[in-house]
Amino acid sequence: MSVEKNIVLALKQVYDPEIPVNVYDLGLIYEIRVDINRKAFIKMTLTAPNCPMVDELLQDVHDAVSMVPSIDDVAIELTFDPPWDRDRMSEEALFELGML
To answer: What domains does the chain contain, in order, with CATH numbers?
Structure first.
């Protein structure tokens, strides 16, 4: 299994503290990259720019990705461009929230 797939599996274990859906299926992860130095770069957003749980959520993402074998370092970029909307959610997340 590729490193990126392992990162996705790790991210699926991180749940938004206010919504019972993982950050990956919620559509908060915009980009996953791994460089030759085994550093993971995660570009992500939040459901709202003023999320009160931002620090906890970023730490949870960092900790989960850090546990992936062959990852030595993690950098997270928080962005609001483009802004998050429900169209980014997976079908699983929509179903789980009763939106399908």
So the answer is: 3-96 (3.30.300.130)
pTM: 0.93
The pLDDT of residue 18 = 84
Q: In sequence order, what E strands does the chain have?
A: 29-34, 39-44, 73-78
The residues, any chain, with a CB within 8 Å of residue 37's CB and separated by 6 or more, are 72, 73
Q: What is the DSSP letter of 98?
A: T
User: For 16-37, how does the pLDDT look when each residue is reduced to its tens digit (9 = 90+)?
Assistant: 888 889 999 999 999 999 999 9
**Alpha-carbon Rg for the chain in angstroms:** 13
